[in-house]
Amino acid sequence: MPPDSFATTSRRALLTLAAAWAGSSWAQTSPAEAAPASAGLYQPPPSARIAYDVDGLIGGSSYSGNAELVWTRDSKNYQTQLLIRKFGLTLQAWTSAGRLTARGLEPETFSSQKIGQAEIFAYFERDANRIRFSAGTPNAPLQRGAQDQLSVFMQLASLLGGAGTSATSGKAIGMQAIGDRYAEQWSFHPSAPETVKLPSGALQAIKLTHEPTAERKQRLDLWYAPTPHYVPVRIRITEANGDYLDLVGANTQFR
Fold first, then answer.
1. Residues 181-196: tens digit of each pLDDT
2. Mean pLDDT of the region 126-137
3. Rounded Cα gap, residues 217 and 239, in angstroms
4. pLDDT value at position 29?
């Protein structure tokens, strides 16, 4: 896609993405400011397997490894996993499973597991409007449009994939984000398209950033490339102490 064309498409996608979130209860805006969201704005990508090269800094020491994001869906349900590996071992795994609806992804279970430790779960109990945690953390109220901290990657991809039906200036993209032991509020700020250097070549991508909060001093940067489908081609997690993991897409296979 020519740079000018990409820039125009990206700006339209970002504006429409903001409009979609502004029309839901997830956005940080008043009812008078909100515009109605269209179900057509949510278009999740087809099933895919994305391999990443990983480098980072952990405890002052350099880290390198690989990761894989597996996204599987049909017309009604989805499952996604993010696996962090080194020397063939899965060091940490996150799994999200749930339904695909007119509002995008609706998680039902989220889990995380570190090597040598038991898997920890969060359950979305929608009939009771609560999140239940297996690790003994007190229940949390479930907000409309809540995502877990893995499903949010593909929910944003679904919104970007369906953008283009309307355009208006928007605000930060806000939502309830569920971890394995806690619930908190996240917001993502869109920025101008950036060039992402991948092993296969450079791509223009839309960047969304979640800044640290008072509860957790962690920054999350996500880059989405529009061609052929909006998927996260780069994921960077940065801790307050300077530790980070940078996942750069090495190969994507759609199924």
1. 999 999 998 888 899 9
2. 95
3. 6
4. 30
In contact, 207 and 222? CB cutoff 8 Å:
yes
Give the whole-angstrom CA distance, residue 33 versus residue 97. 33
Three-state secondary structure string covering 11-80: HHHHHHHHHHHHCCCCCCCCCCCCCCCCHHHCCCCCCEEEEEEEEEEECCEEEEEEEEEEEEECCCEEEE
Q: Degrees (nearest 5) of the Cα angle 80, 86, 92?
A: 40
Q: Which residue has the higher pLDDT, 200 or 9?
A: 200
26: pLDDT strictly greater than 60: no
Helix and strand element counts for the chain (H, E): 2, 15
CA distance from start to end of the chain: 23
As a whole number of angstroms, the distance between CA 181 and CA 123 comes to: 11
Q: What is the average pLDDT across 205-226? A: 88
* Spatial separation of the C-alpha atoms in residues 152 and 165, rounded to whole Å: 22
CA dist 14 and 191 (Å) reads: 9
Q: Give Dmax (Cα) for the chain.
A: 54
Sign of the CA dihedral 219, 233, 74, 19?
positive
